[in-house]
Structure formats: C-alpha cells, structure tokens
Write a structure and sequence with these properties.
The chain is of the alpha+beta class. It has two helices and eight strands, in the order E-H-E-E-E-E-H-E-E-E.
C-alpha cells in the first residue's frame, strides 16, 4: 500500500493564472488539468456558464513533488488563508475508509466518502483541528 500527502490549493476562479505563475516561478510542469466544462455532464445539476472554464482539478510537478489545484464552484465561499487542503492518496479503498472515518471524528464532512467518476472512494472532511483533508483512492476497484 502506498500513501502520499499532497498540498491542494483551492482558488477563487484564478487557478489557471496560478498554474501559469508556478510554471514560470518554480519551473513546474502541468501533469493534468481539467475544467468543470470538461467533466461528464450531470443532468440533475446543470453546469452554470461561468463555471465551465474554471479548473475542477489540476496537478503540477515541481521537482519530485506535486501540487494540486482546483477552483471553487461559482457561489461557493472562499477566503484567502483557508484555500490549502491536504490530499491523502492511496491505492487501497479500505485504507481510504479508515483514514476518512478517523479524520471525521469530532470533525465535519463536506463530501461523504463515495465513488466518483474519477475515484472508487473520494471524500472531503475537515478534522477537529480545522484541517481539511481530501481522501483520494487511485484507480477503479
């Protein structure tokens, strides 16, 4: 079982600008980038026009490490200073469940651990210390 911790920056509609800045400033390379408009459509939740060009997820490589990004969805609250989360990645769905269950104790779940189009088990939880964690299971199991 492999486990990785990755800083995850949540931006307020300017993730593309931040990615371009870090590409130049830190000699970073874009590994992956997807906008909300490129995601599979959900007829139950139509995508607002002002969300289509916002970054839903991106990863840049800086040396041997990665930095992840997304934009907030239009209308979501955003405050500078709380835009950094930590993403725990593992290839073991059961380990993801254990991490999520432990971190949610006396914390707050923003997104229950669930299967998504990009992960067999993904969720977001803020622990009792105010640290927000994204639990990401790699692959499809």
């Amino acid at each position: 079982m492999a486990v990785k911790l990755t800083p995850y920056l949540v931006m307020n509609g300017n993730a593309n600008e931040a990615i371009q800045f870090y590409e130049k400033a830190l000699d970073a390379k874009v590994v992956f980038k997807q906008t909300f408009g490129e995601m599979p459509e959900n007829p139950e939740f139509p995508l607002p026009a002002d969300a289509k060009d916002r970054v839903s997820h991106a990863t840049i490589q800086i040396g041997e490490d990665a930095l992840m990004f997304s934009d907030t969805f239009p209308g979501q609250p955003h405050q500078s200073g709380n835009q950094v989360t930590i993403c725990i990645s593992t290839n073991d769905k059961e380990q993801s469940k254990k991490f999520f269950q432990a971190l949610q104790e006396d914390g707050e779940v923003s997104m229950p651990l669930q299967e998504t189009f990009f992960s067999p088990a993904y969720g977001i939880v803020t622990d009792k210390f105010g640290v927000t964690w994204q639990i990401y299971t790699e692959g499809h199991q």
